């Protein structure tokens, strides 16, 4: 699967960083040659597709549209209650349950597993799409634009696409963050990104 990923992704051989649109850092591996002298990027959806195909080949089925709504741990096993998006519900018992569901883990919360953590005082959003530009600088490089308001990362992806990541100070409500328009994101691109 590693070879398949390597042939499907994009190798970026240079990273450029800016503070208030002024260049402050350039990493190009000109004087240092590690084993893999590049930054590697590809769409997460493709990686998930390859991983799902690998799991199917091993006889493992991935279910989508299913939520875990209860976990009951006993001395003999672990009972998990599942709910499908269409309302169907069922229980299954397991010897082990592995919760790989991120920082706000439903499994950890339902199993009442304590975890000390701090909330990061910012939000960010990610957009994968095509980027029309008139920049003279190299768009096939990785760009980090830093400023007081946050950061903007432009990471090229295969097939003329680009991953754009922007941070926001403070906390945005779920309602507001889910309704940020293309025009609002365009303002962030213009204010933080290069105009050259």
Could you describe the 3D structure shown?
With 196 residues, the protein is of the alpha+beta class. Helices cover 21% and strands 35% of the residues. The chain is built from five helices and eleven strands; from the N terminus they run H-E-E-E-E-H-E-E-E-H-E-E-E-E-H-H. The chain has helices spanning 2-8, 44-57, 106-110, 174-178, 182-192; strands spanning 10-12, 15-19, 22-27, 39-41, 66-73, 78-84, 89-94, 122-130, 142-147, 150-156, 161-169. Strands 3-2-9-10-11-8 form a six-stranded mixed beta sheet, with helices on one face. Strands 5-6-7 form a three-stranded antiparallel beta sheet. A two-stranded antiparallel ribbon has the order 1-4. Strand 2 (15-19) and strand 3 form a beta hairpin. The protein starts with a helix and ends with a helix.
H/E series, N to C?
A: HEEEEHEEEHEEEEHH
Shape: globular
What is the oligomeric state here? single chain
Mean pLDDT: 84
| Gyration radius over CA | 21 Å
Strand neighbour order, sheet with most strands = 3-2-9-10-11-8
Query: How big a fraction of the residues is strand?
Result: 35-45%
- In DSSP terms, counting alpha (H) and pi (I) runs of 4 or more, how many helices? 5
Task: Give the uncertain stretches in residue-range form.
Answer: none
How far apart are the first and last residues' alpha carbons, in Å?
A: 39 Å
Q: What is the helix content?
A: 10-25%
Structural class: alpha+beta
Largest sheet: 6 strands, mixed
- Tell me how many strands there are: 11
Mind sketching the topology for me?
Elements: H1 2-8, E1 10-12, E2 15-19, E3 22-27, E4 39-41, H2 44-57, E5 66-73, E6 78-84, E7 89-94, H3 106-110, E8 122-130, E9 142-147, E10 150-156, E11 161-169, H4 174-178, H5 182-192
Parallel strand pairs: 2-9
Antiparallel strand pairs: 1-4, 2-3, 5-6, 6-7, 8-11, 9-10, 10-11
């Amino acid at each position: 699967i590693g070879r398949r990923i390597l042939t499907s992704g994009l190798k970026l051989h240079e990273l450029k960083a800016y503070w208030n649109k002024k260049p402050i850092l350039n990493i190009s591996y000109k004087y240092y040659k590690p084993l893999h002298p590049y930054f590697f990027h590809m769409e997460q959806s493709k990686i998930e597709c390859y991983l799902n195909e690998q799991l199917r080949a091993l006889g493992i089925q991935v279910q989508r549209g299913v939520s875990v709504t209860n976990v009951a741990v006993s001395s003999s096993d672990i009972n998990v209650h599942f709910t499908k998006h269409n309302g169907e519900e069922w229980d299954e018992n397991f010897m082990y349950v592995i919760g790989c569901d991120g920082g706000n883990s439903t499994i950890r919360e339902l199993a009442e597993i304590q975890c000390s953590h701090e909330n990061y005082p910012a939000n960010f959003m990610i957009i994968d799409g095509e980027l029309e530009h008139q920049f003279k600088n190299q768009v096939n490089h990785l760009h980090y634009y830093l400023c007081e308001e946050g950061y903007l990362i432009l990471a090229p992806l295969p097939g003329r696409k680009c991953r754009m990541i922007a941070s926001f100070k403070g906390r945005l409500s779920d309602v507001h963050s889910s309704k940020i328009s293309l025009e609002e994101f365009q303002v962030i691109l213009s204010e933080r990104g290069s105009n050259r």
